[in-house]
Recover the amino acids of this structure.
């Protein structure tokens, strides 16, 4: 096996940054080049649809300053232009008219927001994926824009919540009868929709968008039921597609992402993938996945870099996916996969405000858990799922938590304090 | 090694708890509690992993 002298990481967001950091942590002393399409240094995306939008002046969530990247991590930065081609025969990444030879490469180009046809023709219409998108949306919110969000997914919902928090009028338009069905299943999608309604966000479900209207600047969103919504700001949150266009002709297998085995290896010598662009085989659930979650991107970046540097000692990446979303001061957390066989609410009530815990079954296995404002519960279910718990185990644990909660309050607090103070 | 939580950064997401549940635990109010103030014997790698997986970079270890 040839030693890697030059590691190239394509994509300067979370997965790319974690790839670089992991490479150095393993003691890799060779050259590292980090290629990024945007001008910005690597920054964190979750805050862009959350705290960053809630008021003017929230700082840009940059991960590391340039000095740390260059001096401490010894990274050569190539920012501001996207990679345009991968030459797997010649082992080189092409960036416009520049060619960067690699010994090993980690592909971490992420995903791009899906757009509405013709949506870019009017000012005031945005997707939310990049820092520049977030800056533009925040400026519109600062000026009191009447906001229409197209798509009641997590990003759209977070934008709606941020706008409501500022007291702005918000309408969310969703083509499906129930939002988030694919992400969390139908009953929980209803719970999420109810959360919007309780906080004064108008939900228009089961209706399509037929067009956007305005003279230069968007003024109205036209709907399939013949009605129109006045709008100064339209945020399109209709999903993302993996950024694989530049890999056409590379010889890599592309199928809703870069197809990888359980070690994030693409099957082409020296080429690994990580983050939203990677569709990898997750041994935990024995199926291919491309979850588009922060945690997967972070962890895969590190694993892909280590495996790229030492392919003979490659380790699989096996995980119980996890994501969170913050709306109206509530926190939704989901671990696992939304198993199609059954969803059961095991704590709380879907019709009331407070805490809620729902479990997801596939066959006789516990495969997922969704919580609303139940931060003390969610990770315990992640542990159970990780250990391959049965559905019966999951229900038994839930029953134990419920009876524990009834008996618990005072003594438990004292116990915890005693442990912390020791 | 001591475990240090930056309370200004921690939002109680609980990633650390899923890695090392006997060290980290998020309570009903969404606050992270340390079940032990120092890294337990022989568990450094696991706790380091918990520290590294925090999305808010709210955890660190100190001698």
């Amino acid at each position: 096996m040839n030693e890697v002298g030059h590691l190239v990481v394509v994509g300067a967001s979370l997965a790319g940054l974690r790839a670089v950091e992991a490479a150095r942590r393993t003691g890799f002393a060779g050259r590292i080049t980090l290629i990024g399409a945007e001008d910005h240094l690597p920054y964190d995306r979750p805050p862009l649809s959350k705290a960053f939008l809630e008021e003017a002046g929230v700082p840009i969530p940059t991960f590391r300053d340039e000095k740390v990247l260059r001096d401490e991590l010894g990274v050569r930065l190539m920012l501001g232009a996207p990679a345009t081609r991968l030459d797997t025969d010649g082992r080189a990444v092409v960036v416009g008219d520049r060619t960067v030879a690699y010994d090993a490469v980690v592909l971490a180009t992420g995903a791009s927001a899906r757009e509405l046809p013709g949506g870019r023709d009017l000012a005031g219409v945005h997707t939310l994926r990049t820092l520049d998108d977030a800056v533009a949306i925040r400026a519109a919110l600062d000026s009191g824009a009447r906001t229409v969000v197209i798509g009641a997914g997590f990003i759209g919902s977070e934008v709606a919540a941020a706008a409501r928090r500022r007291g702005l009028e918000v309408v969310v338009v969703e083509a499906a009868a129930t939002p988030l069905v694919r992400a969390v299943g139908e009953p929980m999608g209803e719970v999420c929709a109810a959360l919007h309604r309780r906080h004064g966000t108008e939900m228009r479900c089961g209706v399509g968008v037929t067009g956007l209207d305005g003279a230069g600047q968007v003024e109205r969103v036209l709907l399939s039921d013949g009605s129109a919504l006045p709008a100064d700001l339209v945020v399109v949150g209709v999903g993302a597609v993996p950024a694989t266009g530049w890999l056409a002709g590379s010889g890599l297998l592309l199928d809703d992402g870069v197809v990888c085995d359980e070690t994030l290896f693409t099957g082409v010598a020296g080429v690994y993938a990580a983050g939203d662009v990677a569709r990898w085989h997750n041994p935990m659930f024995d199926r291919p996945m491309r979850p588009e979650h922060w945690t997967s991107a972070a962890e895969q970046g590190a694993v892909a870099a280590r495996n790229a540097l030492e392919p003979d000692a490659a380790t699989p990446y096996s995980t119980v996916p996890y994501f969170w979303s913050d709306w109206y001061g509530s926190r939704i957390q989901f671990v696992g996969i939304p198993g199609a066989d059954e969803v059961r609410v095991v704590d709380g009530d879907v019709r009331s405000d407070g805490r809620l815990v729902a479990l997801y079954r596939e066959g006789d296995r516990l495969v997922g858990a969704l919580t609303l404002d139940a931060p003390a519960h969610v990770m315990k279910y992640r542990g159970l799922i990780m250990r391959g718990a049965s559905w019966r185990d999951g229900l038994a644990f839930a029953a134990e938590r419920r009876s524990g909660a009834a008996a618990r309050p005072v003594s438990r607090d004292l116990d915890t304090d005693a442990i912390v103070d020791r | 090694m001591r475990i240090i939580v930056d309370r200004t950064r921690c939002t109680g997401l609980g990633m650390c708890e899923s890695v090392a549940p006997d060290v980290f635990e998020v309570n009903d109010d969404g606050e992270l509690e340390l079940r032990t103030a120092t890294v337990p014997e022989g568990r450094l790698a696991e706790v380091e992993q918990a520290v590294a997986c925090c999305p808010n970079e709210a955890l660190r270890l100190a001698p």
Observations:
- Residues 329-413 of chain A form a domain with the Enolase-like; domain 1 fold (CATH 3.30.390.30).
